[in-house]
Amino acid sequence: MIKLSNISKTFNTGKPNEVKAVQNLNLEIAPQDYVVIVGANGSGKSTLLNLIAGSLLPSAGTIEIDGQLVTRLKDFERSKWIARVFQNPLSGTAPDLTILDNFRLAALRTQSKDLLIGTTAQFKADVKDKVALLGMGLENKLDQDMGTLSGGQRQALTLMMSVMDECKILLLDEPTAALDPRSADLVMKTADRLIKDFKLTAILITHNLKDAHYYGNRLILMREGQIFKDYSCESKLSLTQNDLFSWFS
Amino acid sequence: MEFYLTALLQGLCFAGIAVGIYISMKIFNIPDITTDGSYTLGGMLTGTLLTHAFPLYISAAAALLAGAIAGAITGVIHTKLKIHALLAGILVSTALYSINIIVAGRSNLPLINLSSVFSIITFTTDFNLNSLLILLLVVGAVVAITGYLLKTDFGIAMRATGNSESMIRALGVNTDRMKIIGLAMANALTALSGFLMTQQQGYADISMGIGIVIIGLGSVIIGDTLISRFNVKSVWKILLLVVAGAVVFQLLLAVTLSLGVNANLLKLVTAVLVLLFVSLPRLTLSRQND
């Protein structure tokens, strides 16, 4: 589903503060894989995710999504495959728009936003059903501004928004970093359920090694802009939590 | 009474600027100084076309289009060349000063005994009352069209662009393009104000736009105070309150002048009034927080 070939990303090229965030990295992710990426700060995890999303363009190498070369496509052009949940709950939603308006935009992620009023009663009913699945009681607050909700509620809604339109790839960049343990658990469980139900290919970046151990069918450890360890299906199952902790000690 | 009616008419003429500034400042978070130039552009173009006996609808369309182009240029400079929006706007409005003189061929255009938007339809023989009705129609149309636009899927994407850029890009919207369209819209509306004002006051002048952005700003701030005070959510009502802000602002200026303030101090009074509107909510808020 995703294929990165010889990808490098260098910031501030030629300056004293040059950073080689990702170096000559090769990665192939099969459809419906759920890849978890761990690594120390500065190991290039977020850069890698931004390269896949198109928020950053690579200094060298090629990126393919779904068999199509997308190396030079910008983030808004890759949205027809990719939905994202950001580390900051504020980044994934528009706080001054209502929940309903946020969902309306999400429902048009792969389509053009036309000069028609799309927030119809029918649409509202659909969103209500979707939001009710979260079991947070938000389905009766659709006309409320997104900004009035807590970080956990917003992350959960962002997840729901990602499956409002056809979605193939879900990128999760430390989605629970800003949340309390209970909200974090709810968000992770919701993500896991959506990834299975909608047969998504997913990439999760996390610092929570318990989550990294529990979720996903492939685990990657990044170090200095490269893939340091890569465990798929069976080999991941044989890992213990202590193995993961030992990588960071 | 006549005095206040004129202020009311002026306020309605400025409704376009107010809605334009609302779009650039409140929706896109862009302080757009192009306003000074595009307002004059709308006025000078209207003056020129009317003195050359072009029909009114062509003048109106030309003013709207010229304003839109000016705004789009600011947008392109801001988004594609990554120049700060303030500087981009100042550059375009500075350049427009020369363009405006070239367009008109001179710096002042009186429109005496020419047909105008206010004489083309006659509801009543009272000229001022007739003007009021026509302005209400035009402003009503502006609010209706802009309000509808902001409620469409495109409009929601527009509002999200200024609100959460990372989100709306991830949802497939080209934010650069959106900002260019937004600034084009805002300045088209500003030029519409220039079109109306030129005919209302009977002349176009190269200096008519100096500091006009402050009037838009003041109107939006008055409107915004009302919007947050009454917690207004509906897009239509928000736009109506912004227009009301423009009218209230002109009435306040009229009151100040009628108290005997020297007309030369008009811009000073304007600046002080805007400063008051901006600071009053904060002053009262900080007292509540103590």
Automatic annotation (TrEMBL), chain A:
GO terms for molecular function: ATP binding; ATP hydrolysis activity. InterPro entries: AAA+_ATPase (IPR003593), ABC_transporter-like_ATP-bd (IPR003439), ABC_transporter_ATP-bind (IPR050166), P-loop_NTPase (IPR027417). Keywords: ATP-binding, Cell membrane, Membrane, Nucleotide-binding, Transport. The keyword Iron does not apply. Residues 2-249 form the ABC transporter domain. It comes from the Bacteria. The keyword Transport applies. It is a peripheral membrane protein. GO terms for cellular component: plasma membrane. It is found in: Cell membrane. This is ATP-binding cassette domain-containing protein.
UniProtKB/TrEMBL annotation, chain B:
One of its GO terms (cellular component) is plasma membrane. It is a multi-pass membrane protein. Keywords: Cell membrane, Membrane, Transmembrane, Transmembrane helix. It is found in: Cell membrane. Pfam families: BPD_transp_2. The chain crosses the membrane at residues 54-73, 85-107, 127-150, 180-200, 206-226, 238-259, 265-285. GO terms for molecular function: transmembrane transporter activity. InterPro entries: ABC_transp_permease. PANTHER family: ABC TRANSPORTER PERMEASE PROTEIN YPHD-RELATED-RELATED (PTHR32196), BRANCHED-CHAIN AMINO ACID TRANSPORT SYSTEM, PERMEASE PROTEIN (PTHR32196:SF69). This is ABC transporter permease.
